[in-house]
Design a protein that fits this description.
This protein is an alpha/beta fold. Helix content is about 25%, strand content about 35%. The chain has a single domain, classed as Double Stranded RNA Binding Domain (2-Layer Sandwich). Strand 5 and strand 6 form a beta hairpin.
């Protein structure tokens, strides 16, 4: 019995999965999404995010916080290190005239082997669920 319990305690943490929770931004009136620049997140994340929005058929524009635009998007991302750098969490939000209309949240537990891989692929999944 002790062997089974010890084995379960060692294997269970390896089964942790990444999670993605999304509220789809339905019926966007504009085909231009203004991305609010976040200087605390690496530019490579923002560039990948912009490419994925464009791949969905939208035009993009990078703006500073406070600039006027009817459809805006904000992003947050944190990285971890475990056998290499990985995307630990990300949050993408879409606003229409200042009201949040969609959100996608990604989280990768430290023990999840699925956390490794291309960041752009993770952003692509987020955008597929976030934008119509």
């Amino acid at each position: 019995m002790k062997f089974i319990l010890a084995t379960a305690c060692l294997i269970f943490p390896l089964t942790a999965c990444t999670s993605l929770h999304t509220t789809k931004a339905e019926h966007l009136a504009d085909k231009v999404v203004c991305i609010v620049n976040n200087p605390s997140v690496e530019t490579v994340f923002r560039d990948a995010y912009e490419r994925q929005i464009r791949a969905k058929g939208y035009d993009t524009k990078i703006i500073a916080k406070g600039e006027a635009c009817s459809t805006t998007s904000t992003y947050e991302a944190t990285y971890g290190f475990h056998w290499g750098v990985y995307l630990a969490s990300a949050e993408l939000k879409i606003f229409y005239q200042g009201v949040e209309v969609g959100k996608s949240i990604y989280h990768a537990p430290y023990v999840s082997p699925a956390k490794h891989g291309r960041v752009e692929g993770k952003i692509e999944k987020m955008i597929d669920e976030l934008l119509p």
